[in-house]
Here is the input.
Amino acid sequence: MIISQSQSTLLPSLNSSILTDLHENQYAIIDDFLPLSFANQLLDDANRLYAQNYFQQHYFQFGGSLLKKPNIYELDLTDPSLTSRRQQQQQQQRQSSRIDLGQWDNVIQSLGPSFVSKIDELETRRQRERQHHDNSTSTPDSKSIPSPSLALDAETPPAIKVQLNTGGGSFPWHYDNPGPPNQRSLTCVVYLNPHWKVGDGGEIVLWPFLSSSLEIPPLHRRAVLFWSDRVLHRVLPSRSDARRVCFSMWCHGKRGVVNSKEETVLSKDVLRFGSYDEAEAFFRRSALQRVLSRAVYGEEYLESLLECLVVGGRRRKKNVENGDRDGDEGGDIGKEGTEEMESEGMSSKEEEKKLVRQHEANVAAILTKLRPLIDEFRRRKDAVRGG
Here is the structure.
């Protein structure tokens, strides 16, 4: 039975401090994001749906392969109008089977849309106040680089997925929006782990570009918000007997703003910096950091990638057309096309070597054009890490 709950009882009190954190730190943390009873009901419904086999194995893309994330399962609650034809068929099958989503229907119908609307309202107010301040200040602070606007599409409900880690699984470093045609602007991850304790693992780690990384425990009812296209992040392995449950809401940005040419094409004009300090300040705030990230954080990327995989089996995607790329090295996949399992009989070591070679080739391609900048950013990354 679904207990209908109003928007006001589901959505927490969100205020301007959340937007301040997002713009100054590129992330925000909200504890007690959900009412306790509602969070507990969501967890019960997630466990029930998993037991009823409605969750599916999670895969992610690396190069041209779909790789299995062992022990990670997901249930896609995305609005069918925003999904691929394959996903729409899955939605229709679920509806025709009269699947009881329980309280997750309230997330789809109320919590998700009202969250986007409220964040957009706060962002619009913040941008208006900033414009007023700029107009009334004769000598603006030349040292400060303004954060871009979230530019949310308030008319589009968020994409929502429930994820369940049965133990031992992890996620490699990635951006939730790796590039076009993805439209994600803001990520909100909400945790449902009432019995989590130190040592269970499954912490999310945020690593804003050339800043200190932050390890965040997945506490019950905690929400973690961050820019989808500007915050590198991963999930640490869970203990083998520690189940971890969360759901993610991805708020879409306006077309023409998110993944615009200015945010995806690293031209010679962009690279005309007066100093490395100026370059660092620019890339910290720009989604163009995604072009450099694989090389700047090369060792960390590879380590996390190998850590999360069961090496030796992979999927290949064929006839891909007109699909959404929800993620690259670690994100989700939503492309049209057929899938087939490859059975090449490769050993774990052979598959591991192939992944290493592919990663090294990607890094080498970036270094060929941008070695001095990459070397300096690596030095600065290590200095922040060591300091």
User: Anything to note?
Assistant: Residues 348-386 form the longest helix (39 residues). The first strand starts at residue 27 and ends at 30.
